Amino acid sequence: MKLTKKEVLHIAGLAKLSLNKEEEVKFEKQLSEIVNYVSELNEISLQGIEPTSQTTGLKNVFREDLETEPSLTPEKALSGTEETYNNYFMVPQIVSKQS
């Protein structure tokens, strides 16, 4: 299958690429070769082959969440600061309001 210039320009547009005339000719040939190569996969018989979603054999490993140390209480977390408000750190404002 040979891609047309219009199809190449459409693909370039999707990729947000601008092509000069030389690149249009170059990519028309290259993209056509790629499409032809991939289309060869249609010639392969897949009868009796089960679909697969991954090939590494890796599996997700889950474990129960265990508390290894006591959680940090708000009081302990805020113990090193001078100013707090409703269990939050109070810090100087660094972003100014603009009208």
What does this structure look like?
This protein is mainly α and 99 residues long. It has a domain at 5-42. It is built from 3 helices and 2 strands, in the order αααββ. The chain has helices at 5-14, 21-39, 74-77, and strands at 84-85, 88-89. A two-stranded antiparallel sheet has the order 1-2. Strand 1 and strand 2 form a beta hairpin. Helix 1 (5-14) crosses helix 2 (21-39). The longest helix is centred in the N-terminal third of the chain and has 19 residues, at 21-39. The two termini are 60 Å apart. The relative contact order is 0.08. The mean pLDDT is 89.
In short:
This protein is mainly alpha-helical and 99 residues long.
H and E order = HHHEE
Compute the number of strand runs: 2
Globular, elongated, flat, extended or rod-shaped: what is the shape?
elongated
Distance between the termini: 60 Å
Strand order of the main beta sheet, please? Answer: 1-2
Into which percent range does the helicity of residues fall?
25-40%
Query: How many H/I helices?
Result: 3
Kindly report the oligomeric state of this protein: single chain
As a percent range, the share of strand residues is under 5%
State the secondary-structure class: mainly alpha
Largest sheet, strands/sense/barrel:
2 strands, antiparallel
- Average the pLDDT over all residues and give the rounded result: 89
Low-confidence stretches: none
Rounded to an integer in angstroms, the radius of gyration calculated over CA atoms is 30 Å
